[in-house]
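2024-03-11 09:14:02 DEBUG pipeline.ingest accepted 1 chain
2024-03-11 09:14:02 DEBUG pipeline.ingest length=150
2024-03-11 09:14:03 DEBUG pipeline.predict start
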Amino acid sequence: MNVPENKHIVGSLELCDLPELSITDLNVRVDTGATTSSLHVDNIDDFEKDGESWVSFDIHPDIHQVSKIVRRKVKVEDVRKVKSSTATREKRYVITTTIVMAGMSWPIQLTLTDRSEMSYLMLLGREAMQGRLIVDPEHEYLLTKSTLNL
């Protein structure tokens, strides 16, 4: 496959950091079927700050120690009706944060939702990959392989 210089090949699973949320080494499911990326959070509360919409929520920053919970506060970029994997529509808050993968970083939008029944705490959707990543679903950790020493 001839890959453009500005794009990188990723597998169906990759590792990422979300430094603004203090999350490192998060296993993410790369999902070309999802438009927007989503992140598992608990106990979402919305509030207003300086005339803008904000949310606070609980996250598990260390997937190896899920009992550790931290509270975060983030400005809301949007509220969207999203069709979940179970085909139900739900209102989700959308935030913008920085993602870091294999030393590259860029801003992405994340919807906040309860993914506790899913295998992975985060989905990386098409909007976050656009212009940067090409998916090879046959493999896992292609982009982050060198950091994992697989």
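2024-03-11 09:14:41 DEBUG pipeline.report The two ends are 22 Å apart (CA to CA).
2024-03-11 09:14:41 DEBUG pipeline.predict end
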